[in-house]
Here is the input.
Amino acid sequence: MLDTRPAPPAPRGGRAVLRPTGRERSFSADELIVSKTDPRGIITYANDVFLRVSGYEPDEVLGQPHNMVRHPEMPRAVFKLLWDTLGAKQEIFAYINNLASNGDHYWVLAHVTPSQGPDGRVVGYHSSRRKPSAAAIRRVQPLYSQLVAEERRHANARAAVDASSRLLADVLAEQQQSYEEFIWTIINREES
Ligand SMILES: Cc1cc2nc3c(=O)[nH]c(=O)nc-3n(C[C@H](O)[C@H](O)[C@H](O)COP(=O)(O)O)c2cc1C
Here is the structure.
């Protein structure tokens, strides 16, 4: 599927590349990390939990592309799936590893939805994230590592995301699961 989303603007002020510390930070099971974006993925809202866990001030996140919290170990294929699903006006659940302002990381289970105007046009996106279980992270991490390893075999981003998207489709086909079935198997185990 073609990536139809418009290219986001470059980050403001030449942000330095963050190096992951390998330290994990967490938040409580009764908290939600919430953000909203415009149709291009530019942050228009971040709640207090988002700011506290990511370690940013409001003026550092508002107006920035959402990939400002991107962790380098997250597969491109997962974000392609996210944008393809949102582009089809569908919601998606995904386990995402994010990078805080000091390089610490925090895993979330994100529920991302498109917001539409009365004419059906997408006016923005909303993401609500809760704390995933350690068991769920253990289930997705090996798959994500496999996808990232595949991506690193390719010199350009396009080839990398195509190859890892194919690999993701192959892994799911082997398990005879759609992505939705795969993710819900993990989410349902969190709740049992
Ligand atoms: C509502 C919404 C929330 C998002 N939340 C995150 C997030 O928490 N972490 C993240 O890395 N990407 C998030 N993204 C995806 C980013 O826009 C981006 O596609 C991703 O970070 C990959 O960045 P890259 O294209 O620079 O590799 C979100 C997108 C939307 C629309």
